[in-house]
Write a structure and sequence with these properties.
Length: about 140
Amino acid sequence: MNIQLGDIGHIIQLAIAPVFLLTGVCTNLTVLTNRLARIVDRSRALEDRLDKAPRGADTDELEALYQRSHLINYAITLSTACGLLVCLVIAMLFLGDTLNLPLDRYIAGLFVFAMLALIGSFGYLLREIFIASKNMRLRHHRRKH
C-alpha cells in the first residue's frame, strides 16, 4: 500500500463535489432545526394559553403545529441520513482508491440513496410549508371576519 502524492490529490478532487453537497445538507439541517424550534416555541405558548382558557381556534392551531412538527422531524431524519450517506461516499472514495478496491457500484448506490433521502427531506419540508401557509391564511381570514 504505497500511496503517491498524486493519488491523494486525485482522491481529494473526487471528494470535492460530495463535500459541497454535505455543506448544502448541513445548511438544510439548520433551516429544518430552526423551523422545528419555532414550532416548539409556538406550541408551548399555545399549550400555556389553553391551560388557562380553552379555545377552539387555539386547539386547531396546536393540532396543526403537531402535524408540522412530525413532518419536520421526518425531514430532519432524511436530511441527516443523506449527510451520513454522503460521508460514506467520501470515505469509500478514499478507501477504494487507496486499497485498490472496486467500490464504484457501492459508491454510486450510496449516492443515489443519499439523493433519494434529500428529495424526501425536501418533500416533507414543502408539505410542512404548505400546512404553515394554510394555517396562516385561516388565521388571517378569522381576524378579518
